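Entry 12.
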Amino acid sequence: MTQFEITPQLRDIIQVSSYIEKEKLLAQKDVSHEKLIEFYQSCHPTPTLLALIRKSKLYIPTYETYVQPKTKEFLKNMAKLRLKAKEQEYANLLNKSPEFTTLYETSNQEYISPAKQHKELKNQMATIVNIAISVASVSYAIWYWTKSSWGLKESFRVLITIFFGLLVLIAEVVVYMGYLNKIEEARIKEKRKKEVKKVIRTIDIASSDTIDIIDTIDSIDTIDSIDTIEQSEIVEHT
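Predicted 3D structure (tokens):
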């Protein structure tokens, strides 16, 4: 519904008119377009309705910010997010983090030193060179063998050489990727192992010296599956 502000000019027009509900209109700061049309049709204070509207101003109410009530689920999720942020901040204090952070999750990423990066780059370059040498050697051998043994045309020799070169390249890449996957699996398995020191017996000699016999156990269970580790202590008094 459109509201119009009752300006001093419009107020004077309403006051001198014979409208029945003029006191009610004068007590308000704004009037609806329906009431304004009703007032015009009842009194005709101006030649046209547009002229009457021009005596007023469009009323724009003040904007009120709507505060949506917070649900229990929203408050619960906010508490979880705050707790997660605090845990991440604490983990960053314990573990060395990179200088710049991103929006992606970096808590499970391992820090790689510049020396380790240089070593990995050197190994990758050596692998690329070895694969290139293998492909070139096999291609040259096929090229020479097809001429000396079969005496084929150069077009057939080129196709056969390219085929075997691609075959060797694919085989080398597959073997290398399998090697990298095995290394990664072994690294993950080694990280999941947890060294547990378990006290199996405590010997008290003459109530002065105490000897603890400690057995070191490498737990092969994953960290996720370990709930509690029971420690047993047998004290023998002599």
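Annotation: The first strand starts at residue 3 and ends at 5. The two ends are 97 Å apart (CA to CA).
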